[in-house]
Specification:
single chain, 141 residues, alpha+beta, Protein Transport Mog1p, Chain A, seven-stranded antiparallel sheet, three-stranded antiparallel sheet, 3 helices, 26% helix, globular, disordered N terminus
């Protein structure tokens, strides 16, 4: 296969994957995560899979958690059954069990003078999908 054909196939696959996703923004609109297009999305920063086995919440706290350092300190106290999987000045992630007892992946990133936070809860067996979803978290422009 020649390089031009490979590039065309790659771009077509990339476009299809982008077209098959929809955004979930927090209520302030400064944080965004992508979920599959067949998920139901609310204007409050939440979304749920069609089978209701996965749900996501996107937020940016107005007070108390304004830096990644604050999230790194406070989140493990709230999510006692989570283990830190990434921790740096630009991202923070944990995995384990949410406060509801379901498996979860939690991620925070800087967003100007605030932080963006996403938590996804899921039923067993969807860890990779959950990690991929929270990995799309970004500060909206």
């Amino acid at each position: 296969m020649n390089k031009a054909c490979f590039v065309c196939l790659f771009l077509a696959a990339l476009y299809a994957s982008v077209a098959d996703a929809k955004p979930v923004k927090n209520s302030d609109g400064n944080c965004i995560v992508s979920v599959p297009a067949n998920w139901s999305v609310s204007t409050l920063g939440t979304a749920e899979s069609p089978d209701k086995k996965m749900s996501v919440v996107v937020s940016s706290p107005k007070h108390g958690l304004e830096t990644i350092a604050q999230v790194q300190q406070m989140a493990p106290e709230i999510y006692k059954d989570d283990k830190v999987t990434k921790s740096s000045a630009t991202e923070f992630e944990m995995e384990g069990k949410s406060t509801s007892g379901k498996p979860n992946v939690y991620r925070a990133i800087p967003a100007g003078a605030k932080v963006c936070i996403v938590e996804i809860t899921y039923e067993n067996g969807a860890t990779t999908d959950a990690r991929n979803t929270v990995g799309t978290l970004k500060a909206a422009k």
